[in-house]
């Protein structure tokens, strides 16, 4: 069964400036006119889901209903395997309000130490669930993951938990990478293989739901 | 630093009959007079934590404060690795109210199928966090895990997700095992090695916080 395609205008259902910039950048080549939930003055629904996919669907669905436009939402987080997937869907909540990710990363380190989890057992992965919801109730889900391990914080780039995440096969953390290296998609390649969780989910979304690239 | 020991009376901070029976059985040899939260008519606090340990602490703390006695609480769940640790701390919530674990197990199967996760990638583990809280605020945390994989439901024993969990090295699911095999602790052994997550956490708790066994 083929997925439904986007065209014209769509809402990016996020109030997070970092995610909004990243999603606009990803959507740019496809001629989709992206408006943000903030620009439309949409309220933020409670994220009461129990999975990334549920929370992304809650956000996309609420924005589609309120705007009458298709809406794209991301829910993402860091799953630390020795912490049973925590902070997971609570990754943002561990940072508190206003968000303090230095404190959140320190908490991850503390929880690992409390349990005596040594450096060789600090495997983790980032997850991104992207949901596109249409006003008539139709929905499409795409998930991406990137596996790696946790190290002491390095680098000032990216956001969230990026400084402690060392992707498998690399020597620099997400906090030390350019945005191009972290989530760029090489569309000229026959088989683009972006690094980040969100770019991986987006690549599947693009194949399924976006019109051909422009220019 | 040595942990604080229990003696005399203690509250088992659960309203779940299955957990209560299992914890009474585990505590029986230690001469602790265990009363349940239900017998003391204590209310159930909201489990607003983001980890098993936090939710166990919320329950133990509330019962200790309300009763003036040390209280023991368990928070536990099934972490499916390819689902990023879901249902995890929401394991009970996936069953709904009144609890329908056949539906919850069917949902796990559906989420795996939706993502094309084949039988060889269905690794999962159970987690139990046990917290003992004293009325003065002192707390001790113990965690246990048992690793295995998910299979179609087999067996009528145990509770919750037991019928789909095949522990590593065994050919029967938790739903097919006797309670003795699943969580019995052989105290005559110099190194008891119980199977279940809760019994493993309890063994550490017993070493740290319980008086010598009686009889």
Rg measurement of chain A, Å:
17 Å
The rounded distance between the terminal residues' Cα atoms of chain A is 29 Å
Largest sheet of chain A: 6 strands, mixed
Which fold does the CATH topology of chain A refer to? Maf protein
**Separate helix tally of chain A:** 5
Most extensive protein-chain contact, per-chain counts: A-B, 22 and 22 residues
What sequence of helices (H) and strands (E) makes up the elements of chain A? EHEHEHEEEHH
Number of domains of chain A: 1
The assigned structural class of chain A equals alpha/beta
User: What's the overall average pLDDT of chain A, rounded?
Assistant: 94
The strands making up the biggest β-sheet of chain A line up spatially as 2-1-3-4-5-6
Proportion of helical residues of chain A? 25-40%
What oligomeric assembly is this protein in? homodimer
Identify the overall geometry of chain A: globular
CATH class category label of chain A: Alpha Beta
Strand content of chain A: 15-25%
What features would you highlight for this structure?
six-stranded mixed β-sheet; 5 helices; 215 residues; homodimer; Maf protein; 20% strand; alpha/beta; 27% helix
Report on the structure:
2 copies of one chain form a homodimer. By secondary structure, chain A is α/β, with parallel strands linked by helices. Chain A has one domain: Maf protein (Alpha-Beta Complex). Helices cover 27% and strands 20% of the residues of chain A. The first copy, chain A, contains 5 helices and 6 strands. A 6-stranded mixed sheet of chain A has the order 2-1-3-4-5-6. In chain A, a hairpin with a 5-residue loop joins β4 and β5 (139-150). Chain A is globular and about 50 Å long.
